[in-house]
Amino acid sequence: MLNSDREGSVSKWRIRLETEKKDLELKLQKSALENNQKEILQQRYLLILTGVFISIFIILVFYLYKLYQKQKLLSEHNAILIQEQNHRVKNNLQIISSLLSLQSNQLSDSKAKQAIDESQLRIEAMAVLHRQLYDTKELDKIDMELFIHNLSDMIFDSYGIEEVELEYHINIRPLKAEKAVFLGLMINELISNACKHAFAEHPAPVLSIDLSEKNHQITMRIKDNGLKSVSFQKKESFGMKLINMMVNQLDGHLSYEFNNGSTFTFKIA
């Protein structure tokens, strides 16, 4: 009976342990299933969020592309308008120059004729600048080396001077058109002055034009090898008044010296 009771008790405990073991296994399986379901939900949420972000990114890229296309068309349209404006200004300046030439041909007074011719040269100087703006891709900037070469050639042709030794030292970035036109008018006045006074009956005329930029300061120096100081320095002359007006407009400084020729030095910040 004792053996039978012992075996019954052992069998009962064995059954109980097996039952608890199976319950524990079921709990572990249930916990693993719940964890898998949570991971599946998290992955589903992550996929949904990724899809939303990708959709927003695609919409944003499409919007930016449309905006870029619109800005590109607007820029091209503005470029065409600026080019057309420069072309019209160039044509208008040429018309004004032609009218002044016709008026000059009808004048008998030498001083009045000289004044008209000088005004025509000033207009031609601005026409050279606008011609360069129209012919190049730079819409509002001027290559000063090309501009000075074209301008000086035009002035010497106007005065019929061919045998001039020209020295150019141009080391400057392209300038805005509004600043370049002031420098161009000053160069026109100073070269015209040299043609009228310094190079008159000169056996070997030499003209030097230096234009450089350092530490945001622009320095322009125009030197001739005239044999004497010229009357252009008189402050009451129209050319000198015009130069002083442009110097003040640019907040610059102009100096003059005579040493084997006249040297005009202009500096602006």
From TrEMBL:
<keyword id="KW-0547">Nucleotide-binding</keyword>
<feature type="transmembrane region" description="Helical">
    <location>
        <begin position="45"/>
        <end position="65"/>
    </location>
</feature>
<keyword id="KW-0067">ATP-binding</keyword>
<dbReference type="Pfam" id="PF02518">
    <property type="entry name" value="HATPase_c"/>
</dbReference>
<keyword id="KW-0597">Phosphoprotein</keyword>
<keyword id="KW-0418">Kinase</keyword>
<protein>
    <recommendedName>
        <fullName>histidine kinase</fullName>
        <ecNumber>2.7.13.3</ecNumber>
    </recommendedName>
</protein>
<keyword id="KW-0812">Transmembrane</keyword>
<keyword id="KW-0808">Transferase</keyword>
<dbReference type="Pfam" id="PF07568">
    <property type="entry name" value="HisKA_2"/>
</dbReference>
<feature type="domain" description="Histidine kinase/HSP90-like ATPase">
    <location>
        <begin position="180"/>
        <end position="268"/>
    </location>
</feature>
<keyword id="KW-0472">Membrane</keyword>
<dbReference type="GO" id="GO:0004673">
    <property type="term" value="F:protein histidine kinase activity"/>
</dbReference>
<dbReference type="GO" id="GO:0005524">
    <property type="term" value="F:ATP binding"/>
</dbReference>
<dbReference type="InterPro" id="IPR003594">
    <property type="entry name" value="HATPase_dom"/>
</dbReference>
<dbReference type="InterPro" id="IPR011495">
    <property type="entry name" value="Sig_transdc_His_kin_sub2_dim/P"/>
</dbReference>
<keyword id="KW-1133">Transmembrane helix</keyword>
<dbReference type="InterPro" id="IPR036890">
    <property type="entry name" value="HATPase_C_sf"/>
</dbReference>
<feature type="domain" description="Signal transduction histidine kinase subgroup 2 dimerisation and phosphoacceptor">
    <location>
        <begin position="84"/>
        <end position="159"/>
    </location>
</feature>
